[in-house]
Amino acid sequence: MSRIAPLQPPYPPEIQDHFDRVMRGAPPLVLFRTIAGNARAWEKFRAGSLLDRGPLTLREREIVIDRTCARTGCEYEWGVHVAIFAAAAGLTDEQVRATVLEKADAPCWSAAEQALIAAVDALHDRVTLSEAEFRALSAHYDDAKILEVLLLCGFYRTVSYLANGLALPLEETAARFPTA
Q: Model confidence at 5, in pLDDT bands (50, 70, 90)?
C-alpha cells in the first residue's frame, strides 16, 4: 500500500477529465491517483509534465525514460513504461533488459542511442554533461532534442522520487525489472 492513500473512484469531474486525457480510457495509475489527492501537487505535476510527444521519437523518449527510471531504481515507472510503450517504440527484449542491466555502450544500441544513454547516465551520476558527452549527444541530436532529454531526465527523476518515496505498489500489468 502506498504511504499516502490514492484517490478512490468516483473521482471529482475535473480530475476524472484529466485522468481520461492522460490514460485514454484505461484506469488511472496509482501514481496519478496519489498525486491527484493533493490539488497543489497535482497541478504542479501536470504543469511540469512532459506527457506530450515532444521533439524526440517515441523510441528515443522511451530509452531516456526507461534508463532514467532504471538508474533511480524506480521499478514502478520503468515497469509502466515498458508495459505500455516498449513494443510501440520498437525496443527488443534485449534492449529492455539493457536499460536496467547493461552499460551505455552495449552492442544492442546504435551509436546515437549509446550517446543518449551515456547522457542519461552522466546526468544521473554527476548531474551534468562533460564537453565530450555533450559533443557526442550533439552529433546525433539537435538543440530541441537535447533540451527534451534534459527535461525528461529531470522530470522522470522526480517521478521516481514520488513512486519510490511513497512506496507505490507496482501496477498489476507493469513489467518487472529483469534479474539477468
A: very high
In this structure, the answer to whether residues 34 and 80 fall within a common structural domain is no
Q: Is residue 91 part of a domain?
A: yes
Which carries the bigger pLDDT value, residue 180 or residue 88? 88
Query: Do 80 and 159 contact (CB within 8 A), yes or no?
Result: no
Q: Which of 132, 93, 98 is nearest to 115 (CA)?
A: 132
Residue 60 CA, chain-centre distance (Å), reads: 11
Query: Can you spell out the DSSP letters for 117-173?
Result: HHHHHHHHHHSS--HHHHHHHHTT--HHHHHHHHHHHHHHHHHHHHHHHTTPPPPTT
Range of the domain at 144: 58-165
Q: Is 129 found in the same domain as 71? A: yes
Q: What is the pTM of this model?
A: 0.96
Q: Give yes or no: residues 18 and 101 share one domain.
A: no
